[in-house]
Every structure is written in structure tokens, then in C-alpha cells.
Design brief:
Elements lengths: L5 H4 L2 H4 L2 E5 L4 E4 H19 L2 H8 L5 H15 L7 H4 L3 H8 L8 H4 L8 H17 L3 H12 L8 H8 L11 H19 L6 H4 L6 H18 L16 H12 L14 H8 L10 H12 L5 E5 L6 H16 L4 E5 L2 H16 L9 E6 L7 H5 L7 E3 L17 H9 L10 E5 H5 L8 H9 L2 E4 L7 H17 L3 E5 L4 H12 L7 H4 L6 E5 L6 E3 L8 E7 L4 H11 L5 E5 L3 H15 L4 E4 L5 H15 L2 H4 L8 E5 L13 E5 L3 H8 L21 E6 L1 E2 L6 E2 L1 H7 L1 H17 L5 E3 L3 H9 L10 H23 L28 H7 L7 E7 L5 E2 L26 H8 L2 E3 L7 H11 L5 H4 L10 E5 L4 E4 L2 E6 L3 E6 L3
Parallel strand pairs: 3-9, 4-7, 4-8, 5-6, 5-7, 8-9, 12-17, 13-15, 13-16, 14-15, 16-17, 21-24
Antiparallel strand pairs: 1-2, 3-10, 10-11, 12-20, 18-19, 21-22, 21-23, 25-26, 26-27
């Protein structure tokens, strides 16, 4: 910044304009002081925090490059609150308004101004004043100002709409009091802007900027940086109010605030110069003689060969090391693009939790990160209950975790705090946590960037400075894909490197992803996008040409024999009893929780309780984590399961939770008919790891990989899937799956499904528009296709309602960017429902009511990592439970099944749950249990809710039975 500070340059009238007021402490802040604070913060953010990729994106569109970019950010942050120099704002505090009146700035009282005052909120007022000043003082054309001034108008999260701008123009008295005072207001407003332009070094640059056309992504980044600068400069714990801070020098004030904020700097990746073997060996702690798999080596080489970073789609079988390949590619992409971090987006909280420790291990091996301080975040609504994440909050760690809301240092509080704690307090929360450098979380966090919502610019700032990795890309339906494709188009405009991972991606979907990211110009290479090779790497830079690589799969493959099995529980029990007579482990995957529980009940009658394990989504969070750990320990890789793998025959009955994230290995698979891409995922849990030469460590009759397909009536002319499966997946997709499997089912052992060779053939065959139709199936498939297309069209139409618009032409202001949006968007059940096509589900915290009426945590909960008891903890009803007890209770969250998502049942359930209201828990004072619904089970772990009987156990989870009328 140039020369004397603002205060020394301003008239007494301009110095009297106020910006902030604390009623409780009687503190205040003059506008000039907040302008200085915001501008200085913006400059430091540009210098020390903003990734190089984003600095380049802003700088390259300005005639003066990086110097212009920094000056523009500083200036916009400095003038963002100029709209507070208006009667509509200044009238709000009588004492401060009177001080302004003493200098000729007359205004009506707040009461006299009435509701019309809201037509000119200070952000919009500032946009209008700044645009007027650029036109009158610097000769800008009216059509060129909005692309710059929208950063001022949108600094409270929502860029103004055209109607709002027109309404404010029609009420000029809100900007300047009519009469003799109008000239004083105008003089002070222009004086503040004139002096700010000189002070922040842009007075001589505005002439050249007048002809610039800012791309919309740059406008978004400028808006977001103004928001961040304002939020930091508005924290009284960092920038104290007057009169206490009036004597503090500019240098002392800034140094103290920046030291207190202590923001971790972004990752600055260096491109690895080592060989692929050295890179994978060092990053993933592999044995000295280990070599990368062909897919990993090819992905790394392609990243190095690309002219510039862009989109890379890695399609490879389960267990081929796609995650490690993605991280290696991300390191190269980050070095070449200047990205300052990574966002790893996964389908579910469970997959996010599983990925988080892997991300931490990689970071601890990464040059430029190891031994240094960087911010990490686990991005989903229950991250604060994840022990790996919570452990990072301990003082002294080299990696700073963000996002845990604890009882200390509430945002906006005045209590002074140490640098580490302030950094945590500022970076936590749903709107800021993604600004951490390294983030693993649910795909919702990325999809929110395509949802018209308040403070959307902050989400774009968070993702635009990272390499984005999207895992399990095949898992997202049409509704989610509408948002994902729009997000990819914006990521392409930001030149964000993206890595997409999938084992089973239809070729048509691959083409949609490429075109969304790279633009319609990529369609010239449509024949390359439709490649059916497997494994397959597809890469393209924004606006570039599609390239592909066809690496070999690793040497190990699996031939899976598939056969039909009648959908009869006793037939299943008899078959499993025969198959497991010599020992072995079988996995039975059902498409609904109801079928899981029904199956487990029958199998226990045959095998006994100890030899049947249940896994599905209706367990409380802690039980689900314990269940996953148990499955990994007993059925994981040979090194994990040594000594724990059952020897006498064991059956795991699971829902779709077995498809993702868990590295588990079984000798035999039984699966309900499901979409073929998901069936292949399930097959990935069959003979997943080598167990002795020729699988000799498996029971003799289970050394051939076999999958029994049930969940359908195979005796009808066209297979008839069970109702529950049709409700989940739809008839068309199930019939297409059966159709491509038909040759393998009919020819049995003579034609096994060869993994990975047949993966792409089966997936492309199932999803191709011109697929072969088995004899006699045409009519059934045609009817099912009509319903399928209708459902997809309905999903796409509903998703488009709140979807962000396309990237506009350069120079077009962001006015109305999020108009008709959803308001706030966050990772709550309501927020997730906005980007997923699912009914809004009810979540409860499950506790137990003892015979004496007291409440306690569930009695069987395991101790935590520190050995502290969690089961049976007293939960007093008249006072807030201890922090540990409350956190333990919160870790017993449970999402109620679909029966409770229908409006009438949900309303009834909420009304019944709210009968147990504990102000000490559910009020705002408890950070763990505030606003939670409490489900109290009796001593037998049963309850009744909204016409259903509920029964819960740590072995079977939640069972729901409709009461008889």
C-alpha cells in the first residue's frame, strides 16, 4: 500500500463514518479502520495463503499481471464496505449517527426510514456507489463496471439480482439524504473512494482496467477473497474495536492479528523427478523390491506426458491401486498447475472415514508436507466423531486439523486465544472448512459447488485451488450427475486438475464427463471416448484433445463361475451348509436391510449365532465402525486377518455396505441380482487376495471362485426380480444385468466371468442403447425402458431447478448468479437431500432408558483408544452431560430407514420423539447434542415409534416391524 494511511488523508467528516458496533461492549470501528484492516488482510492472503494457480488465473486477465492481481484484490477488499457510508446503514446506531450528523451527514432515524431501508443493504449500496464513482471519476462505460463491483455487492454471500439493483436505484434517498446534505454525502463517499484508490495503489491502474473483460470464474474468486478478508477483519478477537484499540499503530494491529490467525500456508508441490518405482515406494511405504502396477505406472507417465494438467479418468479393476495412482497423479498435477491442496471426494461417510487415514499416511510421506504445518479436514457431518480426525486436534501436531466444533472459542467471542486455537476457530464450520489444504469427504461437498446457494463463491474458492479426486464415479445416479457435470464444467473453467476413478464406468458416462470438463470441443474425439479397452486411461485438458492409454491389468486375474440360485431362504441355507462343510467364509449380499435380517435369522438356525455376522447401514455410528473393524480383522488381507479368519465356516450377510471401502476377501459369494457394475464390485470381494499357491489355503471345494445369483425368480420366461430390488434399482437395469450375464449363467463353468477382462464388456453391454435383447425379453425390456427413461428425465428436471448456471461469457457480471436458489447449503440431512435424489431421512441419537428412568449410553459400546469407558455412561437429564459422555452419545447417531421418510410418518415420528425434550442437552449450550432428536430404548433395547416396533442389537442393528392395526 502506498504512503500515509487512510486516517491521515481523510477529512473529519469521512473519518466520522462508522462500520461496526458492539452494543454489549460499547465498542465501535470507523469505516476507514475496517477498510485498512480488510485491505491488509487481502494482501497477506494473496501473498501467503492463496495457491499459485489462483493467483495466475486472476493475474493473466489483467494488463499488469501479478502486480495488478494483487492490487485489485487489495482494493476491492478495502472498498467492500463503502455502502456503509449511506443513510440506510448509518442510521442504525443513534450515537454514531449523531456523530456523523455533526459533520453535515444528515439522515432520518431508523424508525423513520422504515422497511424501505432494506432495499439498499450495504453490499448492494456499495456496488452502486463504486460503479457510479468508476463512471464519473474514471470514465468507465456503465456496462464495464459490474464485473468488478459485483465483488462488493456479493460480499455477504449473494450477488445482487437485476431487480434488486433497479429497486435500490429507485430509492436514492437511501444512498444520500435529499436536500443540502446530499452533496456532503456524495463528497464523503467519493473522498473515501478517491483516497482508497491512492492508498491501495490502483489510482493509476483503473484506466487500463476499464477495457478488461473479467471471466466469470475470476469474478467468483474476487468475491470469495473479499468475503474471506472481510470475515477475518471483522473478528474483534483479531482486530479489536475502538476505543480500546484506537492507540494501536497499523503495524502493531496487523502483526498481532496475523500472528493470532496463524493460517497454514498452502501446499507448494514440487514435481517428483524420481522413477515411478521410487515414487510409489517412497509415498506408500512399499517393500524395496515392489514395483508399481501397470495402471499406476501408466497413469503417472500420462500425467507427466500431458501438455498441461486437466481431467484424467482411471478405469481399472478393484484392487489395482487406483487410489495410490490418483495421489501420484495429483502430486504431478499440483506441481504443474500450482494447486495448493487436494480434495478427495467419496460416495459415503464410511468411504470418507476409510480414506482419511490413508490420506494422512500419504501426507506424512510427502516431501514439502512432512514435518511442516498444513491444514487437513474430514468433510462430512459426523467428522467430529472420527477418532483419526479428532486426534489431530492435539497441540503440537505438524498437520493442523480444522472442523471440530468444541465448546471452547465460539466464533465471534471476545476471549483471547492462542494462535493454534484461533486458526482452528476461524477455519472450522460448514462454509470455511473446505478451505483447508487437504480434504477427504463425501461427494456432497463437491456437488454443493453446483448448487445455487448462499456463499457459493467460498465453495468455489475452496475447490478451485486444489486437485480434485472423484472416487467411485459409477456410484452416482442421474440426479447427482446433473450437479457433478455442472461442477466439472466450472472446474474446467478454473483449470482445476481432476482425477476420476472407477472400476465399472459405462462408456457413455465417460463421454459425458469428458465433455462436461473440456467442453463440446472434446466431442471431435468421440470414438476415443467410446473405447471399450480395459483398463483404460482417458485424459483431456480444458478445450484440448482427448488422449488415452491402455495399460495391462496386473498379472493376477480371477475367473468367477456364476450360477442361478432359487430365491428361497431354506434352499440358500442348505446350499451354504454343503459349501462350507470343510470350512470357509461366504458373503451373502442382499439389496435391502429387510432381506439381510430375514436371511440372517434363517442361517443362524443352521449355523448358529456365532457363525453368522450381519452388516448393513442401520447401525449406530459407533457400532458401524466396530463392525467394519471386525470385518477387516477377520476377513481382510492375509496380513490383517492372520489368526483371526474363521476356520469352521462363517457367513457374512450384508447390504450394499460390502460393495465399497472395505478390503475384505471371501471364498464364496451369494448376491441378489443387481446392476452389473455393482455386481462386479461385489465380485471384487471374492478371492480378492491370493491365499497360498493356487488358492491352496482355501478349503478345497472353494478354491474356484463362484458367485451364486439369487433375488429373482429364474423360472419365468423373463427373470422376475424381487420387489425390494426393483424398488431400489428399477426393473430395467436389473433385466439388462441379467441379460449380459445370461451367457455366463447358461454355460456355467465353461464360461466364467473373467476379472478383469470381462468387466468393461459386461458394463458396456448392460448400458448400451443398442444392446442385444435375449429371445422373448423384448416386450418386458421395452416396458421397463420406458419407466427407466421417465425416471431419469424426472431426476434430471428436478435436479436442474437449483443447479448453477453455465459459465457465462467474459465480462458478464455475476448478477443473479444464485437467484432462485436454496438459500443455505450444508452437510445436514436437509443439505444432502438437495444434491441427492433421496427422501429426507430422520436421524436420531440412540440412548438407553434404565428401569429407574435414568438415561445412559448404550451398555455394550467399546472403550475408546485411550481406554476410557464409553458403555453405560450416566446421562443426567437435568444438566448437561460431561463432554465425553455427550460426545459418546452423539457417536450413537442412527439414520432411520425409509419407512420414516414419508411425510405423514416422519411428522408423527418427530412429534413423538420431541416428547423427550431435555433442554440441558438439546439446547444451544451443548455442542454435541444441540437440536438432536433422542430415541430412548428400554432395557430390552426396544421402542415404539410412529406405528412401528423398533428393536436394536449390536449384532443385527435396527429391526423395524409395522404394528398391526
Amino acid at each position: 500500500m502506498v504512503g500515509l494511511g487512510l486516517r491521515a488523508r481523510l477529512s473529519r467528516a469521512a473519518r466520522a463514518v462508522w462500520a461496526k458496533h458492539d452494543h454489549d461492549a460499547a465498542g465501535w470501528l470507523p469505516l476507514w479502520r475496517h477498510m485498512e484492516d480488510s485491505a491488509v488482510v487481502a494482501g497477506l492472503l494473496w501473498d501467503k495463503w492463496l495457491p499459485a494457480a489462483l493467483r495466475t488465473l486472476v493475474a493473466e486477465v489483467l494488463p499488469g499481471g501479478e502486480l495488478d492481481g494483487r492490487a485489485l484484490v487489495v482494493w476491492l477488499a478495502g472498498v467492500h464496505d463503502i455502502g456503509k457510508a449511506t443513510p440506510a446503514f448509518a442510521c442504525q446506531v443513534d450515537e454514531l449517527a449523531n456523530a456523523m450528523r455533526d459533520h453535515g451527514l444528515e439522515m432520518r432515524s431508523r424508525q423513520a426510514m422504515g422497511p424501505d431501508r432494506r432495499l439498499a443493504p450495504h453490499g448492494l449500496a456499495g456496488q452502486l456507489l463504486l460503479g457510479e464513482w468508476l463512471e464519473e471519476s474514471h470514465g468507465w462505460a456503465p456496462g464495464r463496471t459490474g464485473q468488478f463491483t459485483v465483488a462488493v455487492g456479493g460480499h455477504h454471500g449473494t450477488p445482487p439480482e437485476h431487480g434488486q439493483i433497479k429497486a435500490a436505484f429507485a430509492h436514492e434517498e437511501l444512498l444520500r439524504t435529499p436536500g443540502p446534505s446530499a452533496s456532503v454525502w456524495r463528497s464523503v463517499q467519493h473522498e473515501l473512494l478517491d483516497v482508497a484508490a491512492e492508498r491501495f495503489g490502483v489510482a493509476e491502474r483503473l484506466g487500463q482496467w476499464a477495457t478488461v473483460r473479467l471471466p466469470q470464474p475470476v469474478q467468483v474468486l474476487l468475491t470469495a477473497l473479499v468475503i474471506v478478508s472481510d470475515w477475518i477483519a471483522s473478528n474483534p478477537g483479531l482486530f479489536p474495536y475502538f476505543p480500546d484499540a484506537a492507540a494501536q499503530s497499523d503495524e502493531e494491529r496487523l502483526a498481532s492479528a496475523w500472528r493470532g490467525l496463524d493460517l497454514p500456508e498452502p501446499w507448494r508441490a514440487d514435481e517428483p523427478a524420481c522413477t515411478s518405482a521410487e515414487l510409489f515406494g517412497s509415498r506408500f511405504d512399499l517393500p524395496a523390491d515392489a514395483t508399481p502396477r501397470p495402471v499406476q505406472e501408466a497413469a503417472l507417465k500420462l500425467a507427466r506426458d500431458m501438455e498441461r494438467p486437466g481431467l484424467m479418468i482411471i478405469e481399472a479393476p478393484m484392487g489395482e491401486g487406483k487410489t495410490e495412482a490418483a495421489l501420484a497423479v495429483a502430486e504431478v498435477f499440483a506441481a504443474r498447475s500450482g494447486a495448493g491442496g487436494i480434495l478427495f471426494a467419496l460416495p459415503t461417510m464410511a468411504t470418507g472415514n476409510a480414506m482419511f487415514p490413508r490420506l494422512l499416511r500419504w501426507l506424512n510421506q510427502l516431501p514439502g508436507v512432512r514435518g511442516q504445518r498444513h491444514s487437513v479436514h474430514l468433510a462430512h457431518s459426523k467428522a467430529a466423531l472420527n477418532e483419526d480426525f479428532v486426534d489431530l486436534m492435539a497441540p503440537g501436531g505438524s498437520i493442523t486439523a480444522v472442523g471440530v466444533d468444541d465448546a471452547g472459542a465460539q466464533e465471534g467471542g471476545r476471549r483471547p486465544a492462542g494462535a493454534e486455537l484461533v486458526a482452528h476457530a476461524w477455519l472450522r464450520g460448514r462454509k470455511r472448512a473446505l478451505l483447508a489444504s487437504f480434504v477427504a469427504g463425501t461427494i456432497d461437498q463437491l456437488l454443493f459447488a453446483g448448487l445455487k446457494s448462499r456463499h457459493l463463491a467460498l465453495r468455489h474458492l475452496a475447490v478451485a485451488g486444489k486437485v480434485v479426486v472423484i472416487d467411485e464415479a459409477h456410484a452416482y445416479d442421474t440426479y447427482m450427475s446433473v450437479y457433478l457435470d455442472r461442477v466439472l464444467s466450472w472446474l474446467g473453467a478454473y483449470r482445476v486438475p481432476v482425477v476420476v476413478l472407477s472400476a465399472t464406468l459405462p462408456a457413455g458416462r465417460r463421454g459425458e464427463l469428458v465433455r462436461a470438463y473440456a467442453g463440446e470441443g472434446a466431442t471431435a474425439a468421440a470414438e476415443m471416448i467410446a473405447d471399450t479397452a480395459y483398463p483404460l486411461l482417458t485424459a483431456v485438458a480444458p478445450g484440448g484433445t482427448v488422449v488415452r492409454r491402455r495399460p495391462e491389468a496386473s498379472a493376477r486375474g480371477t475367473a468367477v463361475e456364476v450360477e442361478r440360485l432359487d430365491d428361497d431362504l431354506h434352499v440358500l441355507a442348505d446350499r451354504l451348509e454343503d459349501e462350507l462343510v470343510g470350512g470357509g467364509c461366504a458373503l451373502v449380499v442382499r439389496n435391502t436391510v429387510k432381506r439381510v435380517l430375514e436371511t440372517a435369522q434363517v442361517l443362524r438356525a443352521t449355523f448358529g449365532d456365532d457363525r453368522v455376522t450381519v452388516a448393513h447401514s442401520c447401525f449406530v455410528d459407533l457400532d458401524r465402525a466396530t463392525k467394519d473393524s471386525h470385518l477387516l480383522r477377520r476377513f481382510g488381507p492375509p496380513t490383517n486377518a492372520d489368526g483371526d479368519r474363521p476356520l469352521d465356516g462363517h457367513v457374512v450377510v450384508a447390504s450394499q455396505v460390502a460393495e465399497q471401502s472395505l478390503d475384505i476377501d471371501f471364498d464364496l459369494l451369494v448376491s441378489d441380482l443387481c446392476p452389473v457394475d455393482l455386481l462386479l464390485q461385489r465380485m471384487g470381494r471374492l478371492h480378492r487376495h491370493q491365499r497360498g499357491p493356487g488358492e491352496n489355503d482355501r478349503p478345497e471345494r472353494l478354491r474356484r471362485a463362484r458367485c451364486l445369483i439369487t433375488g429373482t425368480d429364474w423360472t419365468t420366461p423373463v427373470p422376475t426380480p424381487v420387489r425390494g430390488s426393483v424398488a431400489v434399482y428399477g426393473a430395467y437395469v436389473l433385466l439388462r444385468s441379467a441379460a449380459v450375464l445370461l451367457p455366463h449363467l447358461d454355460e456355467g463353468p465353461q464360461r466364467p466371468v473373467r476379472l478383469p477382462v470381462d468387466i468393461s464388456l459386461l458394463v458396456q453391454g448392460a448400458y448400451a442403447r443398442d444392446a442385444v435383447v435375449p429371445d422373448g425379453w423384448a416386450h418386458a425390456l421395452k416396458d421397463a425402458r420406458v419407466l427407466f427413461d421417465r425416471h431419469r428425465e424426472d431426476q434430471a428436471e428436478r435436479a436442474a431447478v437449483f443447479r448453477l448456471g453455465e459459465v457465462g461469457r467474459p465480462g458478464r457480471p455475476l448478477f443473479g448468479w444464485v437467484a432462485a436458489g436454496v438459500g443455505e447449503a450444508d452437510d445436514s440431512r436437509v443439505g444432502r437431500a438437495q444434491v441427492r435424489d433421496s427422501r429426507e431421512s430422520l436421524e436420531v441419537v440412540v440412548v438407553q432408558r434404565r428401569a429407574d428412568g435414568s438415561l445412559a449410553t448404550l451398555p455394550w459400546l467399546p472403550n475408546d483408544r485411550k481406554g476410557r469407558k464409553r458403555g453405560g455412561l450416566e446421562l443426567p437429564q437435568e444438566q448437561m452431560p460431561t463432554s465425553f459422555a455427550a460426545r459418546t452419545a452423539a457417536a450413537c447417531g442412527l439414520r432411520l430407514p425409509v419407512q420414516f421418510s414419508y411425510a405423514e410418518t416422519a411428522d408423527r415420528a418427530i412429534a413423538e420423539l420431541e416428547q423427550l425434550y431435555l433442554p440441558a442437552w438439546q439446547g444451544k449450550n451443548s455442542p454435541w447434542l444441540a437440536d438432536q432428536l433422542i430415541l430412548a430404548l428400554d432395557e430390552d433395547c426396544q421402542s415404539r415409534l410412529a406405528g412401528f416396533s423398533l428393536r436394536y442389537s449390536p449384532f443385527d442393528g435396527l429391526e423395524v416391524i409395522r404394528d398391526r392395526d
